[in-house]
Structure formats: structure tokens, C-alpha cells
């Protein structure tokens, strides 16, 4: 489908919606919403096809699509408001008065969990940088979780004391495990699709960690990678700077420290200036001798690991490392949530404290 054909289809859907909503009855209002705006509705399916267009055309088409979607949602809300007295009266057999089946006031509202808010925030920033979202299974096999990522057999992360292996009677399934990171999504995506690829994958991961203020046996990670021709550390550095500064402000500084990860070469730890002391290292300017308790006086916070994708990883995905290159990064989502909400103990996210959960 060409951009002009996509836009023509968009306006055809709009015209059909305007025609249908004009004469819709109260009983058919929900069906009308599902037909056009539901998860499998005509407009929703068309908007999902945007991912097949180049990023330059996707931006223009996406603006038109979102504008029409907003207009349709507004018209639908107005129609619901005008028809609701008719629908209530019809349900009560034509009698007017108080509907005792309706909930009492005040109406309880749902809220967004801080982790969900953080995932959405991170995804929004990366999508503006041209990344798309991919997902993968929680139950993985040894090949996708370790072998294809160039993690050697002797690596401690393969030990049962660090990884949740699934105990099954079938000997062929003994290598199944709960994924220890979201990096297997990188392997599955590169095996299935050809470059260029620009993907992020947020999701839940599992490790045999002791529960404390900064560790948990179930937590969330975000994996990202970019594979194309002539991709290197300069591309990684620009992406990380754009991402971090969008989240924490343009005055935030980054530094890259050499580090080792089996699946990248070279690898780096990415630090940013502490959001609590703004890089000073002390609790406040008024008390210069008291160290910041978050960064321990260093002025820096370790945020994520990253690097250039190892040639062995590309070979495991049937890609020629001479022709293709890329970078990858991974970070804990709880760490970003703790900084965004100024929380110092990640266990708070899972204790069902409504003072925390209802702040959004």
C-alpha cells in the first residue's frame, strides 16, 4: 500500500463512521465503537500498518491518523452523552427516576502503576527515535537465552543458583528456563527479520536474586538494539544521550566506562549525573560535607550496559558481521522508575501501598 492509498483508506473510514454515527441507536452504539475504534476495528488495523512505511512518511501519516482518531473519539463521546438518558430510560421500561443499579458517588477511578507508567514513558521516547516494540516469551530455551548471545558454558549466569530452570520429566525440555534478560528477543527478531532493525523490548525477567532495596527475583528490563550498515559506538552514544536527556533534562551529563559483556565488543557501562544531587556529590549545596546517599558522593549513577553487538551474535543469527553491524543496550526499568518518582527502595512497587499506586 502506498502512502496515498493509505490516506485514501483513512478518509474512507472517517466518512463511513460519520454516516453510521448520524443514525445510530443507543443499542448499537457499543457495536459502532468496536467496529471502528476497537482493538480489531477498521481504524485500529489501519493505524497498525504505519510500521511498514519509512519513518519520514510514517510521521506525516501518523499525524493524520491520530487527528482523525481523536475526532472520531470526540464525536463518539458526545453521542454517548446525548443518548445515555434515552438508554437508561429504555432499560427501566420507560420509567424515569433514579437508577439504583448505578454505582454511588464518588466514583472510584483506576490508576496507572508506576512501573507501567515508566515502561510507557521509555517506549514513547524510543519510538520518537525511530524504534519499534517487539516482544518474546517468558519461558526460553538455553540457546536463545545464552548460547546465541555468546555466553560461554562456564559463565556463572548459567548456574542453577542464578537461573530458574524448569524441572520437567521430558528430557528434551530440561533446557527450558525463565528468561534472565530480555536479550533473547534480540536473537529472535534478528533471526526472523532482515536489517535494518531498530527494536526495543520491555518486559519481565527472572533471576535468583535475594530481595532487598535494589534487587528482586522478578523485575523488568528494557532491551534495545539497532542493526544496519556501519553502525558503531558513535551511534550508540548519540542514542543514549538523546534518550537520557529527554527523560531527565538537557543538563544531564553522561559518561561511558569500558566494561565486559559477552554479547558486545566493545562494551560499556553508561552513567549519568545523579538526579538527586545534580552531580555535586553532596546532599545539598547548604551542607557540602554530607554525601548524597543515592550516589554515595560520586555524583554519578550507573544506568545501563551497552556496546557494539559481538560478531558471534550476528553469526548466530545468520548475519554477515562484515556486512552488518549494530549496537545493543539493556537497563532495569525499576531503576528508571525509582529515579523518576524519587523512590529509594524498589520493594515499594510491589507492596500494594495505595499512596504509591494511586499517584498517577
What does this structure look like?
With 360 residues, the chain is of the alpha+beta class. The chain folds into 2 domains: 3-91; 114-357, Bira Bifunctional Protein, Domain 2 (BirA Bifunctional Protein, domain 2, 2-Layer Sandwich), CATH 3.30.930.10. Helix content is 38%, strand content 20%. The protein is built from 11 helices and 11 strands. It has helices at residues 3-22, 29-37, 42-48, 55-91, 114-128, 142-145, 183-192, 233-248, 311-316, 333-340, 354-357, and strands at 132-133, 139-141, 176-178, 197-206, 218-228, 254-261, 264-273, 282-284, 287-291, 300-309, 325-332. The strands form 3 sheets. The chain has a 7-stranded mixed sheet with strand order 1-4-5-11-10-7-6, with helices on both faces. A two-stranded antiparallel ribbon has the order 2-3. The longest helix has 37 residues, at 55-91. The two termini are 40 Å apart. The relative contact order is 0.10.
Amino acid at each position: 500500500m502506498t502512502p496515498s492509498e493509505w490516506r485514501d483508506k483513512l478518509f474512507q473510514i472517517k466518512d463511513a463512521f460519520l454516516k453510521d454515527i448520524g443514525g445510530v441507536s443507543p443499542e448499537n452504539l457499543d457495536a459502532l465503537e468496536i467496529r471502528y475504534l476497537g482493538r480489531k476495528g477498521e481504524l485500529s488495523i489501519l493505524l497498525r500498518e504505519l510500521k511498514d512505511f519509512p519513518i519520514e512518511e510514517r510521521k506525516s501519516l501518523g499525524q493524520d491518523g491520530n487527528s482523525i482518531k481523536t475526532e472520531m473519539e470526540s464525536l463518539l463521546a458526545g453521542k454517548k452523552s446525548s443518548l445515555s438518558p434515552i438508554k437508561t430510560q429504555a432499560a427501566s421500561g420507560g420509567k424515569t427516576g433514579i437508577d439504583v443499579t448505578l454505582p454511588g458517588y464518588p466514583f472510584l477511578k483506576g490508576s496507572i502503576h508506576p512501573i507501567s507508567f515508566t515502561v510507557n514513558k521509555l517506549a514513547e521516547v524510543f519510538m520518537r527515535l525511530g524504534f519499534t516494540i517487539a516482544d518474546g516469551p517468558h519461558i526460553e530455551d538455553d540457546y536463545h537465552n545464552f548460547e546465541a548471545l555468546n555466553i560461554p558454558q562456564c559463565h556463572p549466569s548459567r548456574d542453577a543458583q542464578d537461573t530458574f530452570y524448569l524441572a520437567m520429566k521430558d528430557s528434551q525440555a530440561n533446557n527450558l528456563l525463565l528468561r534472565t534478560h530480555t536479550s533473547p528477543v534480540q536473537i529472535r527478531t534478528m533471526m526472523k527479520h532482515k536489517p535494518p532493525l531498530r527494536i526495543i523490548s520491555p518486559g519481565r525477567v527472572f533471576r535468583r536474586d535475594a530481595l532487598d532495596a535494589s534487587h528482586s527475583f522478578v523485575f523488568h528490563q528494557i532491551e534495545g538494539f539497532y542493526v544496519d550498515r556501519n553502525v558503531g559506538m558513535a551511534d550508540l552514544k548519540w542514542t543514549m544521550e538523546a534518550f537520557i536527556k529527554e527523560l531527565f533534562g538537557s543538563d544531564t551529563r553522561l559518561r561511558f566506562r569500558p566494561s565486559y559483556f559477552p554479547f558486545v565488543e566493545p562494551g560499556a557501562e553508561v552513567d549519568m549525573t545523579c538526579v538527586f544531587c545534580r552531580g555535586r556529590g553532596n546532599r545539598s549545596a547548604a551542607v557540602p560535607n554530607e554525601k548524597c546517599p543515592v550516589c554515595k558522593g560520586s555524583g554519578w549513577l550507573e544506568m545501563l550496559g551497552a556496546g557494539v553487538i559481538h560478531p558471534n551474535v550476528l553469526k548466530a543469527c545468520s548475519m554477515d558481521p562484515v556486512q552488518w553491524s549494530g549496537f545493543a543496550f539493556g537497563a532495569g526499568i525499576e531503576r528508571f522508575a525509582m529515579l523518576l518518582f524519587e523512590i529509594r527502595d524498589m520493594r515499594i512497587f510491589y507492596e500494594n501501598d495505595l499512596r504509591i499506586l494511586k499517584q498517577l
